[in-house]
């Protein structure tokens, strides 16, 4: 087990390093000038432009920039944001991480919680009305662009009914010294629309995976044997069949873990949710190289970690993997 | 089942708690003005805000300048300026100005504002390591000296019309007792920048990075008691989120409504009032007079003044602007925004003349020999490309209309919709035929020199336009106070006749403000400088 884990971890670290170098090179090769956003429509003199390039080190050759980046990164310093100068990239990432984790975590829990439950229900009621309607509704939601659904929900619940906040993570006038409970309630109200939007458009995939996997398992001999032994149907379903039908969903969960940090760029923008997806999208538009690199590194680390955790999940759930 | 019920019960407990708290916040909300801004106002400190409009607008609430530009925006001389921190001023000679600081002025920590504060800020701004941009603008300031606590003396290296403007417009005083120990060049990263102490109607409360910034009224403000007790600035980059927040009542002020359709949507809501605020922005089709493939050579098509003139003649500019902006833009004559004091109200854009354009092109050897509808000469079609940023929907819409109108006279226009930073990079490198530019100018017409003089070629003058006559007129206008207006106007006329660009629009910004707010006064140069006089009413 330890040998396997070490080998997988080493692979992950090497992949991370290669991805980081590629990201750095590709980003610098992409056309675009970070000074455009800094200047806006204002005319910038040559001296001013030169001073700005010097400040951010983008007047240096790419090799020098790479050396500076690597030296800084090894010391835990990802540099200074161009768009948010003088804020450090690590400070920006840390400040945006909680919002992303909250939204991404909520969506993952809701998507997998409801997805697994509804997918299992569909499998058990295969071909019946509830199965057909759940398929139709989930596919319809899946086909909707998340930003569009977000706008519709914001218009209906936020503008028309004035029930829920349409943007931000907190009420801007919320007293920072209020109680924890009040703070949680405030965040919860702001979380409802973005989390619902993302869950709605993501649910179909998990439902479909779970339904198909459970249907396949229900056809296997060991399920028939369990029934033949006279076990109650609930026990057959949940203790024997469902556990074996979880493997594909666990794999899917591993792939979706990066969502914890990136969330959905569009949904974060529509609801002005102060997460990393929002930050990354702005950084790409502004050619804020250090921030793009910082968020991309975080996402690639998350993808690799997700893969590793999925493998660990298989390892824990499937005795065949442990024996292999 | 119990496990399932527990979180539900918690939710039921939490939500009413939050709701009841929201009720207790109603009074605070009523006294607060919530402004949406598209960018984060990082370091809203004079001398550090150049280029960040949001930071400049917040800075206008935190800090007062020595004097503020008046309603006519006349930057020459000192007659159109209103006293702010400076109670009065006088000219000692053609090279020396003296300001008297208002003795009532206080920093938010209670320390009196002195001439030393103004001198410190001006000297910082003249330092290119602090701000290369303002250092260039203040290059003709020779020295800044506080004579005593109340009197500031500014000396210039040459006599020119905009001495007063240069001193008061680009810089506001900074608290010397807090800033002079900060190493130069480190101001943006200093503890002071993290929580600036100002002298304006509002003082700094807190910043939630990437989300919001809170200001509170300074009850001791020497020019009067601010009406709104709090100002909260929300950072909302997405245009749809901005509109939603405004319409849901989550914000009171939005300064950029985007396309005309958004204006109509917001106008339909009785809870919102639209205030038109003219701008210092001009949008234009800039012709590259050098060959993009080799900037040392003239452009094979656009170096010809008659071809440029034919393109201008082919366009029905008022119709284009009306179709794109509705009433929210005017047509400028030359690179002169609608608010500029040198604008000639009698000047008119020539009417569209497609037949004249075709005749002019024919005279230059362009004719449709192969009958494909596109003019050609020596076997080469009259085909040009137009670069514009994808982020600007008005420019994208105008580009399509321009393409169609040019097609009618036999010019093929290829549209290159580019990512903002790619567009900018190509523009700065001269890699374009026609660039859809938009420039927000300072109120001073001296800025024309940067973009339209021979000396500016290769720098801000990316189209490589050069006319020594225009240069001479602009130079004279800056030093001849008596004839400045007529000289500037003559320079603009000469420039327009050279057709270095087709000047299309000067927009008016529709500011959306909650109808509960009364006495709204939006200064085009510093929109929120008079916000402290606004009067917020009860929530709808």
Describe this structure in words.
The complex is a heterodimer of chains A (324) and B (540). Helix content of chain A is 76%, strand content 0%. Chain A has 16 helices and no strands. In chain B, strands 1, 8, 9, 10, 11, 12, 13, 16, 19, 20, 21 and 22 form a twelve-stranded mixed beta sheet that branches. A four-stranded antiparallel beta sheet of chain B has the order 4-5-7-6. In chain B, strands 2-3 form a two-stranded antiparallel sheet. Chain B is globular, with a radius of gyration of 26 Å. Chain B starts with a helix and ends with a strand. The chains are: A mainly alpha (324), B alpha+beta (540). Chains A and B meet through helix 2, helix 3, helix 5, helix 7 and helix 8 of A and helix 1, helix 5, strand 10, helix 9 and helix 15 of B.
Order of helices and strands of chain A: HHHHHHHHHHHHHHHH
Low-confidence stretches of chain A: none
Cα-to-Cα separation, first versus last residue of chain B:
43 Å
Radius of gyration of chain B: 26 Å
Which descriptors apply to this entry?
heterodimer, A: 324 residues, mainly alpha, 76% helix, globular, B: 540 residues, alpha+beta, twelve-stranded mixed beta sheet, four-stranded antiparallel beta sheet
In a few lines, what is going on in this structure?
Chain A has 324 residues and is an all-alpha fold. Chain A has helices at residues 2-29, 35-39, 46-56, 62-74, 89-124, 129-143, 146-160, 180-218, 221-228, 233-244, 247-256, 259-262, 265-270, 276-286, 289-317, 319-323.
What order do the helices and strands come in, and which of them pair?
The complex is a heterodimer of chains A (324) and B (540).
Chain A: H1 2-29, H2 35-39, H3 46-56, H4 62-74, H5 89-124, H6 129-143, H7 146-160, H8 180-218, H9 221-228, H10 233-244, H11 247-256, H12 259-262, H13 265-270, H14 276-286, H15 289-317, H16 319-323
Chain B: H1 2-24, H2 26-30, E1 32-37, H3 53-62, E2 67-69, E3 81-83, E4 86-93, E5 96-101, H4 115-125, H5 132-137, E6 141-146, E7 151-156, H6 163-169, H7 176-179, H8 191-194, E8 202-208, E9 212-217, E10 230-235, H9 239-247, E11 253-254, H10 260-267, E12 272-278, E13 281-287, E14 290-291, E15 294-298, H11 305-314, H12 317-325, E16 329-330, H13 354-363, E17 376-377, E18 380-381, E19 383-389, H14 393-407, E20 412-418, H15 420-428, E21 434-440, H16 448-452, H17 468-479, H18 484-498, E22 501-514, E23 517-518, E24 535-536
Parallel strand pairs in B: 1-10, 1-11, 19-20, 19-21
Antiparallel strand pairs in B: 2-3, 4-5, 5-7, 6-7, 8-9, 9-10, 11-22, 12-22, 13-21, 13-22, 14-15, 16-22, 17-18, 23-24
Helix pairs in contact in B: 11-13, 12-14, 17-18
